[in-house]
Structures are given as C-alpha cells and as structure tokens.
Amino acid sequence: MAFRVAARTVLELGAELISSDAVAIYELVKNAIDAGSSDGVAIEFGIVLRHSDYVDALSRIDLALTQTDGRERTERERLLAEAQAAVLEQLLPDAPRDARKAMTEAVEGAESLKGLRLALSEAYKDNNWIEFRDTGRGMSRQDLLNEYLVIGTPSRKRAVEAAVGSDREVPYLGEKGVGRLSVMRLGSGLHVRTATSSDRRFNILDINWSDFEDLDKLVGDIAIAPATGSAKPTADFSGTTIRVTDLQASWSPGRIQEIAITELARLSDPFSRAKRRFRLLVLFNGVRVDIPRLDRAILDLAHATAKGQYEIIDGRPQLTIDLWSGDLGKGNPPEEKRIFLERVDLRSLLSDPGRLEIPSSALTSVGPFSFELYWYNRKNLRSVDSIGDRQRILRLQQLWSGIMLFRNGYRVFPYGDEADDWLGLDRRALGAGGYKLNKLQFIGRVGIGRAENPRLVDQTNREGLKDCDEKQVLMEVLKFVIHNRLKHFLDDIEKRHTHVELDFDETEKRIKNLERRAQSTIRELERRHSTARPQLRELLELFEEMRVYFSSAKDRAEEIEDERDRMIQLAGVGLMLEVVAHELARSTEHTMRIIDDASPEDLPSAVASLFSTLRDEIKTMNKRLRVLDPLSITARQRKETFDFVELVREVLEGHAAQFRRHGIMTDITVSGSRKTINIHGVRGMFVQILENLIQNSVYWLDLRGEDEDDFKPRIEVTLAATPHLMEFFDNGPGVQPSLRDEVFKAFFSTKGKSRRQGLGLYIARDCAAHHDGQLYLSDERRPHKTRLNTFVLEIPKGDE
User: Fold this and answer.
1) CA nearest 173: which of 183, 163, 165?
2) Listed range (335-344, 667-676, 780-789) with the worst mean pLDDT
3) Closest by CA position to 487, among listed 537, 425, 445
4) What whole-number distance in Å separates Cα of residue 207 and Cα of residue 221?
5) Coil, strand or helix: which one is 509?
6) For a tag on the chain, would you pick the N or C end, based on fewer CB atoms within 10 A?
7) Is 3 domain-assigned?
8) What gap in Å lies between CA 743 and CA 758, rounded to an integer?
9) Within this chain, do residues 628 and 649 fall inside the same structural domain, yes or no?
C-alpha cells in the first residue's frame, strides 16, 4: 500500500513554499522566462473592488442580516439599498469598463441581503483578476497533463542536470516543479489558456483551489482536465495566458509600484550593461506602472569599491580582490590595491575550530563566482547636475542599497532585500570601530551560475540558498572581503591621514578570560585530587607569578612618553600574553580531560605523571614570560649590548613544550666560526620579533600538517653578523608573493576568525624599524616555487 495524499496538502504546500505575493509574481515571471518568451511578459491587474473593501462589504451585509429579523419590508429594503450603495461607492472608477459594469449589475440586481451577498461573492471572483501573458513556447494538451498537472515534475530538473554536466547552457531558471503553486497565493481561481506553435486551437485548463479545502477528499478525488478552446489568432502563434481570480489580497497602484521598485526592478541583474533585458510590462486598470532601471551614474559616486572573482584554476581555488577608494573626506587622493589569495590562504581564513567547520573540498566544489560592491559614505554625498540634488541622490542610493545575489543574471530571493542582512553587515557595524560598513551603505551584486555552482541551489520555499558547506564558503569569503579587507583598507587610509592608534582593551579582555579558565581548572583539580594539593598550590603560585610579569610589563609600557611607541609596546605585550594564556588554558583543560577519561585503577600513577607534566609546561611558559623583563627595564626602553645568538636559543627553548606537542623540529645555525653576535639594542623588541615569527610559523605549519599526513614541520634560524642578522625559515605553506607587503600592515591577516588579529608582523617590523633596520620577506622561494617562506631581519652595523 502506498501513501495517500489529502487534497488540502496541496494548499499547505502552496502556503509554505510561496512566502509572499512578490515571490509568487516572480515565480510566474520566471515561468515566462523559461518558456523563452521573446516579448517578455505582461502583468495586468484588473481591479474593480479591492479585497479589503470586499471583506468589509461582506461584514456589513452580515451585520445587516442580523437586523432584518421581524422588520417590515420597507425596513429590509432600506437596509438592502444602503448595503448596495456602500458597495457601489467602493468600486474603482478606473476599473476595466466591462468588469465594472458586470459588478454594478450584479449588485444592483440583488433583491435581498442574502441575494446581495451571493451576487457580490460571485461578481468579485469573476471580475477582479491578475493576468500574466507571454509569447513563449506554450503548452500542448499533453504538456498540461504530463507536466503542469504533475506537482514536482522532474522534466526540467532532468534537463538542468543534463546541461550542468555538459557545456550546454542551462535551459531553465526553475527546476523543482512547484512554482505553479504560486498562483494559489494570489487567488483561488486559475484559468490557463495556452498553445504551442503546432496547436490549431488553444488548450484550456481551469482550477478552483477552493476544491482542495474539502477535508474528506484526496488529491485524486478532485477531477481536473484540459479542454479545447477557441482557434489561435495566427497559425504560428505560441504562448500562455494565466488569469488568477478570486484574489486573496488588496491591490492598488501604490502597492504594485512598491513591488515594481523593490522586487521587479531587481528581477534581472540591474548592473548588466546589456542593452536588451527581459521585458516586463505592468498595468493597473490599463495604466502602466513604471519599473525603474539602475542609473549607472550612481555607481560613479561611490566612495570605495571592492570587486573580484573567486575562480577554480586547474582544480585549485583562488581569490582576486580589487579595492579602490576615492576621497573619504580626509583630503586623501584615490588609492587602489589588488589582493590575491590562493588555496592555502583561503583554507586558513575559513578555518576556525569550534566556530566554523568547513571541509577543504568545499573551497573547490563551491565553484567560481564574482562580486561587485560599491560603498557610500552617505553624509558625504552631494548634488550632481546630471542626477539631481542631494536628497534625490540619497533616495536613489537607498533605493538600490543592499548586496543582491544573481544566478545566471536573475535574482535569488531574498538576498539584498531591505530586511535581509545575509552578510551580517549591520550586526558587525554596530560593534565595530573605524568605518561602519552597514548594508544601507552598499549597492552590490554577487554573481553565480547554475552550471558553475551546482551546489548553490535555492530552498524550495524561495527563502535563500539551501544550507551547505559551499554556501558557507560563499558567505565567509564575501564577509572576509567586506569586514576584513575593505574595512581595514579604509581604516588604513584614514589612519595615514589622521592619528594612528592601536586598541589594547580587546586583547586584555581575552587574556583575562583565558586566565579565569586556567584558574578554574586548577582549582577543580585541587578539589578532586587533594593528595596532589602541594603540586597544585605550586601551579597557582607559578600562575600568579605570570600575572605579575604581565602587569609589570603593561605598567612599564604605559609609562613610555611617546604615544605611538606606547601603544605598540602595549599591543606587543598583549599579543605575547594572549598566546601564553591560551597555552596555559589548553594545558590545564587537557589535563582535566585525560583524568576524566582515565580508568579508576590507572588514576594514582596517571595523576602524578600528568601533574608533573603540567608543572613542567607552566614552568616553560613562565620562562617565556621572563623575557618580558627587558620590556620594563626603564620607561624609555634604553638600549643594551647583548648576545643575539643566546637570545634566539633562549626564546626557542621557551617554546620547547609547544614544539614537541606540534612535532616541530628546530635548527639554529650561526654562519662562520662565530659563536656570539653582539647587538646593541632594546632586547625586548628583538624578543617580540622572534615571538611573532614563531607564533606565525606554528599556525601555518599546523595548517599544512592537516592536509599532508607525512608532513614533517621544521623551523630553521640562520644567524650571521653580515649582511643579514637573521633568516627565519619554516617549511609551511608560505606567503603568496602579492601579499609580501600586506602581511606587515596592521590588521592584515588570513588566519581563521578566532586567530585573526593582524598585529604580530606589524609590531615585529616596527621593532626592527626602531633600530633603523628592516624585516621583510626574502625573494627566495623554497620549498615552494610560488610562495615565500623566509623572513629576513637586517640591522645596520652600527647596532651590532
């Protein structure tokens, strides 16, 4: 026995799948596009009585009926006349003449209130309609039977899938076979008149969706059959007219104009330079409703742009971003920048353990897409002779605001709608410093294709793309372009023309949170294992010592008189402490997990061993924190002479536990026969340079290790008196050459969200510059022919 489907299920499907009248209209227009209509589609509203006025009229008649009991005939006639007059007063004067006449005669011909109610209901159903007309391929009788009357018909989906797997153009926008249910959203009556070029007469299909409301009927109980209509106007005519009656919503010129502006104008890609677009003709009671087109002159007024392509080349993804900025109100000249990211960079920025889990294969399976984003500082918009005054320009920019998604040149709902914030622009803008990039400030489009992006498919209810890994890639890449690259590009321009400042507060908050986690875990261990209380007390004392080092270094850094140096020192200390605090929290929580997972009989020996390991790790971290002492020798950071070779060994030894955990081999080479290299400089700044280089290496070496099971990570440090003080190499994925300067800029990073700060290399280079030296990426390309893996630190001889 198979499932039996209740008739009302069809109504439920229509209500769930078609979320609004605008979407219903879009679905019917899309059918005309798929039918290949060369003349576009005409949408005509014939409205004699608005739905709201119709409902009010029925309510008044029902009230009058309750007042007729026991009344004289003259009183009943008076109530009838008043009800008839009230209805006639609401008939629209510009309604189609024949429809208005029919409704007037029906109302005036009623001889009782009951008769008026019945006559009004029938007249409303027949004389208020929406009609969709196209000159596409049309449908034969067999098409109506085998496709139109089959909900979820697979015919178009098969054709689309066949095209996706070949070089042919995708033939249809729609493929699910449920779009025809959109008509029931608009009204309960459906009349289809259609013909193919080979038909001699029209094929007619009538459906009353109210028949499906019967709770006792199954779908198969409701008989629907095509009929033969009148002869076609010409032998070669083809096309379809769909008339929807018994309308369920109120329609007015204002409401239709709103849909025309907010939805129909965006139906096909408004950014397209094509002279010919799919033609839409909208009429309300014979009067044309204007559908605006995007005036590209508004795009020329943008204060900044971000354009680019995500491509799959030889099976590997790459992202190109072109940024441009005009005058931001700071007197700055126009600037532009190109950023190029390869697979490993994209893999990193989408890697965010615990927050975002996207398989690396989705970077390729998402397929290629493009984007074109225009950003406006609305307070700086001014009148332009060719467009209009400032208020008109503001209205025009707001009219087209939002970042829309188009597939094969046609809109994917609801992306770009006023209420839609699919890229989180408004949420991020509320809490962001610097430029506030909210969705009202953008006019933009993202372009995908059905064949190029087969995994990016619509939800059946037309409420955006189905959730999948590829959708996450699309959205995360666009968020990175806007929230990270464009924002920092604008912030960087502003800072270069105003005051530079680095905010330490956010880093300090993260450190305190990590401290609380570690302390809480140590106390829990103490509560559960009282026999190990002495060792755990020692851990808490070590932890307190770490906190004192942090506070001391922070206080000393804040005493620096030069504001810029003070902020850089604060940021450097904060980054170091955050790394150590993260490791501390990880170590203590890892110890707790092992104890929880161990069997009871193994606990005594396991606990002692684990606490010993934990104590060693914290001591190692403490040793690393002691290098902060050079940061606080004086308020002015006086220089001293020290052995750089010894310093490098000391810093690397402080990472011994971390290197063991990550399986990283290290090697220090001193060129020639020298055993020492004396440097005259600020010791703490050289520590910061090394710490930031090491943390970057650990991150990227781990990332490469995730992709290669047999990968053996290593770090090599080569020291020399001349010409280079240090070459720092790791065999991780390296840096894309186009980013060799970008990686040293404040807030530039392609790391995952939770690790994305972008200050480490900026601070390291600043520390080198403090000694009149430089930190840069070498042109040497090993082990990758297309990436850079070696950082070079050069210090003038005077400081050696």
Assistant:
1) 163
2) 667-676
3) 425
4) 14
5) helix
6) N
7) no
8) 8
9) no
- DSSP letters spanning 393-433: HHHHHHHT-EEEEEETTEE-TTTT-TT--TT-HHHHHHH-S
Looking at the domain assignment, is residue 567 inside a domain? yes
Residue 593 has pLDDT above 90, yes or no: no
Range list of H helices, 628-717: 644-653, 656-662, 683-707
Measured CA angle at 97 (ends 94, 103), to 5 deg: 95
User: According to the model, what pLDDT value does residue 98 have?
Assistant: 93
Q: Give the domain CATH number at 776.
A: 3.30.565.10
Measured distance CA(215)–CA(225) in Å, rounded? 22
Largest CA distance in the chain: 125
Q: Is 291 part of any domain?
A: no
Do 665 and 584 fall within a single domain?
no
Contacts of residue 54, defined as CB under 8 A and 6 or more positions apart, other chains included, come to: 120, 124, 128
pLDDT tens profile 706-741: 888 889 999 999 998 776 789 999 999 999 888 888
Count structural domains, the chain.
Answer: 5
Nearest-10 Cα torsion for 337, 342, 347, 348: -50
* Angstrom distance (rounded) from CA 162 to CA 169: 10
652: number of Cβ within 10 Å = 17
Is the pLDDT assigned to residue 600 strictly greater than 60?
no
Is 0.85 topped by the overall pTM? no
Phi, psi (rounded to 5 degrees) for 734: 80, -175
pLDDT 10s digits, 106-161: 999 999 999 999 999 999 999 999 999 999 999 999 999 988 888 777 666 666 66
State the amino acid at position 66 in one-letter form: T
